[in-house]
Amino acid sequence: MVCMDRGWLPLAATALAGSAACVCAVYHFKKKASKNRPPSPPPYNWLLSLSNYAHAPFFIMPDMHRYATEWANKLGGVYVMYIQGPFYVVTDAMLVYQVISRGDLGMPKHQELYRMTDWILSHRSPQLFSTADESGDMFRAFRKGLAPCFSTENLKKSFPKVRACAEKMVSMWEKMYLATEEPVLTDSWMNRATLDIIGQVGFNYEFKALDFEHNTFIEAMHENLIELSTSMGENPFDRLFPFTSQARQSAARRRRTKELFNAVYEAVKSRGEPPADDQSIGANLMRIKNPSTGQPFPEEIVLANLTIMVSEHMDGMEILERAWACCS
Predict the structure, then answer these.
(1) Residue 87: which H helix or E strand, with range?
(2) Residues 6+ apart with CB under 8 A from 122
(3) Long-range contacts made by residues 33-38, C-beta under 8 angstroms, separation at least 24?
(4) Which GO biological-process labels does this protein carry (predicted)?
(5) Can you give the residue ranges of every domain in the chain?
(6) Residues 29-32: contacts with CB within 8 Å, 24+ apart?
(7) Which one of 155, 162, 239, 287 counts the least CB within 10 Å of its CB?
(8) Is the distance from CB of 105 to CB of 99 less than 8 angstroms?
């Protein structure tokens, strides 16, 4: 028995050495990749520092603004946070050009958001045109098909809906403050307004996130944010042991999210052929066809790209809402 125990020692030592080598490799890779980037605040913990979620837990803390202020004072006008990859925080407007330029300090192109969307929806890669081969049929068809959505004319036509949602949100803030005289948690309501804007402008779909305190779509997205920000989504044990309580909860969250996005897709599809003057994202997604076959792409591909069009544009729309909130 003693001999057998000792026989495992070389194997255990090899496993430990391999694990240490992997950790060191990840650390040196991240260090090399970020050497030309602006400074970054300390990670939430040492384990998350090895991933692309080093600062994600800070975003679900009630005193996030205090941390942001401290980091700005200490790190300067531009610093980098790792949430689903590098996110640049700019507190000095004069430094915006530095961030959006193509130089060493500019924002790198990464596919983390798209990869995580594929993971949430349990799709086989590649399903998203944004991660597909740029010389392939899918990339060219989707890029050309969605271009009219973002024309100057179409954006101008849609802007009254953006303004209406922003004004509705600000009016709600005023009523809530007058009723309680307590500070209003503006960020959570901005997320709701963002979802309503994307639904109305992009898909002619009513999420009604501003109308009800409990919104299933907002709650599902928040659950997935918590899961990803704590690296549960990347936990290899969930894949090895899918029957554990944590793995079942993770699968249920992904399933719930997929069902909600599928409801949006079914609503858009049920309208049939969109009219020619409808240049919304949903309408143009329905028009896209594979140039090689002349037929629509498989539904799972259309659903995946609908999902990323909602998720990706939530950040951009929130910028507009903040501008309206400041001007109102």
Answers:
(1) strand 86-90
(2) 254, 258
(3) 33/108, 34/80, 34/86, 36/104, 36/105, 37/80, 37/86, 37/105, 38/75, 38/76, 38/78, 38/79, 38/80, 38/88, 38/105
(4) cholesterol catabolic process
(5) 36-110, 129-327
(6) none
(7) 239
(8) yes
C-alpha separations of 328 from 161, 188, 192, 257 in Å: 16, 18, 18, 34
What's the pLDDT band for 31 if we cut at 50, 70, 90? Answer: very low
In contact, 267 and 280? CB cutoff 8 Å: no
- Helix then strand count (H, E) for the chain reads 13, 2
Give the tokens for residue 277: 């003057």
CATH topology of domain 129-327: Cytochrome p450 (1.10.630)
Q: Which of 13-22, 75-84, 302-311 has the lowest mean pLDDT?
A: 13-22
Compute the radius of gyration of the chain from its Cα atoms. 23
Reported as a pLDDT band with limits 50, 70 and 90, residue 50 is confident
pLDDT exceeds 60 at position 16: no
